[in-house]
Write a structure and sequence with these properties.
The complex is a heterodimer of chains A (154) and B (114).
Chain A: E1 14-21, H1 30-41, H2 46-66, E2 69-76, E3 80-88, H3 95-98, H4 108-112, H5 120-127, E4 130-136, E5 140-148
Antiparallel strand pairs in A: 1-2, 2-3, 3-5, 4-5
Helix pairs in contact in A: 1-2, 2-5
Chain B: H1 3-9, E1 13-16, E2 27-30, H2 34-40, E3 45-49, H3 55-62, E4 67-70, H4 78-87, E5 91-93, H5 98-107
Parallel strand pairs in B: 2-3, 3-4, 4-5
Antiparallel strand pairs in B: 1-5
Helix pairs in contact in B: 3-4
The chains are: A alpha+beta (154), B alpha/beta (114).
């Protein structure tokens, strides 16, 4: 599912895209680790990196746990970083409920692995300056996570 | 305090990352919920957990955890060790339960508050 993006006046300074395979728990988290390493290399402030790493990891894990497939794109602009996650999956019926801390539809097996605490989406929101979620049941879910950079490197 | 001192004092077994035991430990966090660790652990923490699957490595790398201690005699899975080795992340194991380990660490001056 692709979300409509509008009003992107800024030029992209840096862009990277990752494929996320649903159900692949062994490699889960690697895209987030790569994003973190890249942001470090281009000299982004460590507090900004910490927030992006948390948001990216939670979003990546949601794709791994619930969707068939997804992509995670990171766009670095002059004054913000935009993380876009689109997945093909079951979608979310009630977004308001999904955003509620503690609510989770994770299986027993996932919970035993320490997932499904119902903290994923709330963690993402908490670490974003702008957070948008759209979903269509039976099609998929899209997240847009924007983190503002203050000054040169945040 | 360095990881080596903790390994010695608590008699931990080192499962991998033996070369990185000179890492500095600044604090500690104990949790088995990965989202909780993502949200609340801090850089340089030693992480006490019962989770042994490979995803703990990604969490530890993203949060710049100094090292993981697996409790109650639980051993890291093969993929966990492989991933941790390639990332240079020390994983230690202990027969003790979390409560005991955290208490001993606190006695050594490792705190959950910073």
């Amino acid at each position: 599912m692709e979300m409509k993006r509008k009003g992107m006046k800024n030029r992209v300074l840096f862009q990277q895209e990752f494929e996320i395979q649903g159900g692949d728990f062994v490699n889960a988290g690697e895209s987030s680790c790569k994003i973190r390493n890249t942001l470090r290399e281009i000299g982004i402030n460590s507090d900004i990196i910490r927030r992006i790493a948390i948001a990216a990891y939670e979003a990546e894990m949601n794709v791994v746990m619930y969707a068939q497939h997804g992509t995670m794109k990171i766009n670095v602009y002059q004054d913000n970083i935009l993380l876009i996650i689109d997945d093909k999956g079951p979608g979310i019926e009630n977004i308001e409920l999904a955003m509620k801390p503690g609510f989770s539809t994770a299986t027993e097996e996932m919970r035993e692995m320490g997932f499904g605490a119902g903290m994923g989406l709330p963690n993402i929101k908490k670490n974003s300056d702008v957070f948008q979620i759209t979903s269509k049941v039976g099609q998929g879910t899209s997240l847009e996570i924007k983190i503002l950079l203050n000054g040169k490197n945040g | 305090m360095k990881l080596t001192e903790i390994v010695k004092s608590l008699n931990l077994q080192v499962a991998c990352g033996e070369q990185q035991l000179d890492k500095e430990v600044c604090g500690g966090y104990s949790s088995d919920l990965l989202s909780d660790v993502m949200a609340n652990s801090k850089k340089g923490d030693v992480w006490i957990t019962l989770q042994v699957h490979p995803n703990v490595v990604a969490v530890a790398m993203l949060k710049e955890i100094a090292g993981i201690v697996m409790i109650n005699g639980r051993m890291p899975e093969k993929e966990t060790i492989e991933k941790a080795e390639s990332e240079g992340l020390p994983i230690m194991t202990s027969d003790s339960p979390a409560f005991e380990l955290v208490g001993r660490l606190y006695e050594m001056g490792i705190s959950g508050k910073r």
